[in-house]
Design a protein that fits this description.
alpha/beta; Rossmann fold; seven-stranded parallel sheet; about 45% helix; binds nicotinamide-adenine-dinucleotide
């Protein structure tokens, strides 16, 4: 039967203590999935899991730093041991620097490659070890409109997110014969704390550079860049992730879907 009922399925979501990851977690929980809410900020993972449980859903907080391969392997193997399988993975943990290119450092690039790209490789591999023997599984990697086009303020972020797109396509082709779908999502503008841990949240940087309030700045950006004239929400990204993990998307793999109100056409 083809439907959006995820009862009896589980999903591991990295970065689920954050804005977009939290929205994805809510959507999967409402669809009936058991949600493993993973984040390196355990208190945020616990908060989101508690919210999901209070709303009647099933959620388990997981302490997971995606830059630590041994932590990824241990977390994934524990889920597989407890539930007998992993049905769905959404990689959403991420970080960003908004810095003019000539002021960037090699250390910043290495940080973003670790958090945004190498983590996706290691998490996909850990999960696929359990999905391949069952010949079943869905993976969604959260990419970015910066996977489509570079930007002078976030060169290293764009490099890491271009990498995630190439990796997603290559993993998808590697496991296509195993009946496993691997896709990406490219969100547009969403009001979250992305980059705050690097002291480099996009909205804070733009507010400082433009000398405008957040609301003024968002309305200028949206009017300029987004044909549909609105920001996107974490729930928009969750809905798209749920679709890509559903049977409706069983013949979609190696793709990256823009969720950006028409901003990018490629
Ligand atoms: N906000 C946007 O406009 C936007 C647009 C395009 C793509 N994205 C992508 O969406 C994803 C989520 O970002 P967000 O906007 O929700 O930001 P956010 O800062 O609210 O969430 C990111 C989450 O990742 C977690 N995280 C960071 N490093 C980690 C690590 N080493 N291990 C585990 N967790 C870690 C953070 O604790 C946080 O909970 C990111 O991959 C980001 O690149 C965001």
């Amino acid at each position: 039967m083809v439907n959006f009922d995820f009862t009896g399925q589980n999903v591991l979501i990295t970065g689920a203590g954050g804005g977009i990851g939290g929205g994805i977690a809510d959507v999967f929980a409402k669809a009936g999935a058991k949600v493993y809410v993973a984040d390196w900020k355990l208190e945020n993972a616990e908060k989101k899991a508690a919210e999901i449980k209070a709303a009647g859903g099933e959620a388990v907080p997981v302490l997971l730093d995606v830059t630590k391969k041994e932590q990824i392997d241990a977390a994934v193997d524990k889920i597989a041991a407890d539930d007998g399988r992993i049905d769905n993975l959404v990689t959403c943990a991420g970080a960003m620097y908004n810095v003019p290119y000539m002021n960037t450092t090699e250390e910043q690039l290495r940080t973003l490659l670790d958090i945004n790209l190498i983590s996706v490789n290691n998490t996909c591999q850990a999960v696929l070890r359990h999905m391949i023997p069952r010949k079943q599984g869905k993976i969604v990697n959260v990419q970015s409109s910066a996977s489509r086009e570079g930007h002078p303020l976030c060169a290293h972020y764009a490099a890491s997110k271009f990498g995630v797109m190439g990796l997603t396509q290559s993993i998808a082709l590697s496991v296509a014969k195993e009946n496993i779908n691997v896709n990406g999502l490219c969100p547009g503008f969403i009001d979250t704390q992305l980059g705050a841990q690097q002291n480099s949240n996009l909205w804070d940087v733009l507010m400082k550079n433009w000398g405008k309030s957040k609301e003024e700045m968002m309305s200028v950006l949206v009017a300029r860049d987004v044909p549909m004239g609105r920001l996107q929400t974490p729930e928009d990204i969750g809905n798209a992730a749920l679709f890509l993990c559903s049977d409706y998307a069983k013949n979609i793999t190696a793709q990256s879907l823009n969720i950006d109100g028409g901003m990018k056409l490629n």
